[in-house]
Amino acid sequence: MKYYIIAGEASGDLHGSNLMKGLFAEDSKADIRFWGGGLMAAVGGTLVRDYAEGAVMGVTDVLLKARKLLKNIEFCKKDIAAWRPDAVILIDYPGFNLKIAKFAHGLGLKVFWYIAPKTWASREGRNRKLKQWVDRLFIIFPFEVPYFESAGVKFTYVGNPLVDAVDQYRYAPVTSSAGGYVALLPGSRKGEIRRMMPVCMKVADRLGRRVVIAGAPSRTMEDYSKYIGGRKNVEVVFGRTYDVLRYADAAIINSGTASLEAALIGTPQVVCWSTSFVSAVIIGVFLQVLKRVKYISLGNLILGRGAWKELIQFDFTPDKVYAEVSRLLSDARYRSRMLSDYAEIRERLGGEGASRAVARAMISELK
Fold first, then answer.
1. Which residues partner with 49 through β-bridges?
2. What's the pTM value of the predicted model, to 2 decimals?
3. Which residues of the chain have pLDDT under 50?
């Protein structure tokens, strides 16, 4: 069968690559055309667009790239209509993918959505569109089960694919230099990096130890060097995010998939998040999220309590980040309690084989 997959960011590229492996394993005649990145391209299929060309975050980024986004949407619609896949598989990225879902549904194509939009946090009105245009959601978090049941959206839950990704990875130290280091994962979008790096470089100056930045696959050294300046204790490592996390003493992480990956790998962490002033004023993203749910980190949401600290918007300051990292490095009981919570998160996410199980469920729906 023919599958058209759309992933618009680094986490989608990861999940998309594992889903593609499952589709190829379960369907010997699978033909895949996709929007994604290097991880998906390494599996096979035909790459249409690299996600790095269109990744945006917040109102400001959307306004700056509006024309390009509209052109990409129109191109995607024409490409789908010409290729006529058996299924269009959308991975997260709701701003773009909701428009594609409506279009593909209008063509009479089967539409699946993998990694559901976070309507449980904000923009709950999107559930109506999901029910109208999407044949089935494939969700990956246990706390989403009762939510989407109550919303009346058809879904399948078979576990979380990150468990496989983390456990099957072959780890190796990122450096032979003596001494430990603090990992920094500032996000994959330019906007995230622009807001994270200045604060975190001030923290690096005060820590008095090495800081290793996990370079995002869609970025280049230029995206980081202008913030690093002449600092000798800061380095960037590309293409080895799991290694950077695994051998770090602690991690500063921009909220997102990386936070859950750190929990599964076992790295003590503090999550930091901010958006531009314009985004905060116009749509109040961080206020909306905190009104609907208590946490923004996926692991904390899974537990329903704060396993690690979240420094959000105005709390994201050099002083507060430094204080939390110092505690992670020096307070053995604090670290031990966090690691115990990590074990509970892993247990709640279920066992191995989620990606292949999702692929199998999709194929079953098509048949």
1. 35
2. 0.83
3. 56-59, 283, 287
